[in-house]
Specification:
Helix content is about 40%, strand content about 15%. By secondary structure, the chain is α/β, with parallel strands linked by helices. It folds into two domains: about 5-180 and about 220-245, NAD(P)-binding Rossmann-like Domain (Rossmann fold, 3-Layer(aba) Sandwich); about 185-220 and about 245-285 and about 300-320, UDP-galactose 4-epimerase, domain 1 (Alpha-Beta Complex), CATH 3.90.25. Helix 5 links the parallel strand 5 and strand 6 (about 170-175). Helix 6 packs parallel to helix 8 and helix 6 (about 190-200) packs across helix 10 (about 305-320). The protein is globular, with a radius of gyration of 19 Å. The relative contact order is 0.13. Bound molecules: NADP nicotinamide-adenine-dinucleotide phosphate and guanosine-5'-diphosphate-alpha-D-mannose.
Length: about 325
């Protein structure tokens, strides 16, 4: 078989960069879809930029996606592009629905029009479980989203299932629990904490202001999670999978691990700031990835402690 081609939306994001590296290492030709911006934001893919075909298109613009799929003729499309920050989804609920929800339909429609044989991956989210109905959460746990982002992701999830069932397309959803890395955006809590711990250690900052320290998340390493995305598109039949570590920790525990890494007592630096509380919170997430283990042979490799230590170390290196 010749070289496979993949198209990745959201290639400039955390997951897009790790996935592009993985696909290149497997010998794929990789197209990356980026939206037009007055300044380029390619830091995460700078090191592989000459190896990927970057093209401008937008999840808000149907024709641009059709044109791109026609040009790339991909075997696989990974739809990672989204407005992915939960608090912003209350400030821009309509835009979030358009990027994160309707955008999925636009990509599916483009595939249906150009070539129904193209395999499709949708970046679904544990945020869909929201106010959880059961613990741990599995592929059959009912959804109860708690943010406009979560609601948009539920739409994206079900439209993916619907295209699979309506048009016999190979369309999969990965229900991914929180996954982080040294490339995580600065506003997400793990990176905010590891960056602050490093800054305080180096004397560049004096305090860290946070919201809810009691929320619990199932945090894994993004580099592990993109492998699961790829496995989902290599199966005989399309299906949906929970991708998680099966362990959950509070935000406070995250803070403890990060500050311990730099030898500081977090209580001397962390302040609670109401501005970081959410209108509706997701209190607890913990996933059961047995199906992925059994059917995909996928397992997380990096532990929570290793992940946070890796992020603190990278932030120290960058800031030193
Ligand atoms: P991220 O770092 O925020 O990246 C999002 C990407 O989407 C960026 O490349 C962004 O481009 C692009 N994008 C946004 N709006 C777009 C538009 N209108 N047209 C084209 N591209 C657009 O997110 P991530 O952490 O890598 O997550 C990847 C996907 O997985 C997202 O769909 C997210 O919702 C989902 N997810 C993430 C997690 C997690 O814990 N990380 C868990 C479950 C699901 P710019 O660079 O131009 O902003
Ligand atoms: N961002 C942030 N900033 N979160 C804080 C803060 C703070 O100062 N203080 C406490 N938290 C708490 C939030 O209230 C939330 O309960 C938890 O930390 C995690 O917040 P985020 O890191 O912003 O992630 P998220 O869980 O809301 O969403 C991420 O995971 C989803 C999967 O469950 C994003 O990556 C989503 O795109 C993804 O779908």
């Amino acid at each position: 078989m010749g070289k496979k081609t993949a198209l990745v939306t959201g290639i400039t994001g955390q997951d897009g960069s790790y996935l592009a590296e993985l696909l290149l290492s497997k010998g794929y030709k990789v197209y990356g879809m980026v939206r037009r911006s007055s300044t380029e934001k390619f830091e995460r893919i700078e090191h592989i930029r000459d190896q990927v075909e970057i093209r401008q298109a937008d999840l808000l613009d149907q024709l641009s996606i059709i044109d791109l799929i026609e040009e790339a003729q991909p075997d696989e499309v990974y739809n990672l592009g989204a407005q992915s920050f939960v608090p912003t989804s209350w400030v821009q609920p309509v835009l979030t629905a358009e990027f994160t929800g309707i955008g999925v339909t636009k990509v599916l429609e483009a595939i249906r029009l150009v070539n129904k044989k193209i395999k499709f991956y949708q970046a679904s989210s544990s945020e869909m479980f929201g106010r959880v109905i059961e613990t741990p959460q599995t592929e059959t746990t009912p959804f109860y989203p708690r943010s406009p982002y979560g609601v948009a992701k539920v739409y994206g999830h079900y439209i993916t299932v619907n295209y699979r069932e309506s048009y016999d397309m190979y369309a999969c959803s990965g229900i991914l629990f929180n996954h982080e890395s040294p490339r995580r955006g600065m506003e997400f809590v793990t990176r905010k904490v590891t960056d602050a711990a490093a800054r305080i250690k180096l004397g560049l900052s004096k305090e860290l202001r946070l919201g809810n320290l009691d929320a619990k998340r199932d945090w894994g390493f993004a580099g592990d999670y993109v492998e699961a995305m790829w496995h989902m598109l290599q199966q005989k039949e399309p299906d949906d999978f929970v991708i998680a570590t099966g362990r959950t920790h509070t935000v406070q525990r995250l803070v403890e691990v990060a500050f311990e890494r730099v030898g500081l007592n977090w209580k001397e630096y962390v302040q609670i700031d109401k501005k970081f509380l959410r209108p509706a919170e997701v209190d607890l997430l913990v996933g059961d990835c047995s199906k992925a283990k059994n059917q995909l042979g996928w397992e997380p490799k990096v532990s929570f402690e290793e992940l946070i230590q890796m992020m603190v170390d990278e932030d120290l290196k960058r800031l030193s």
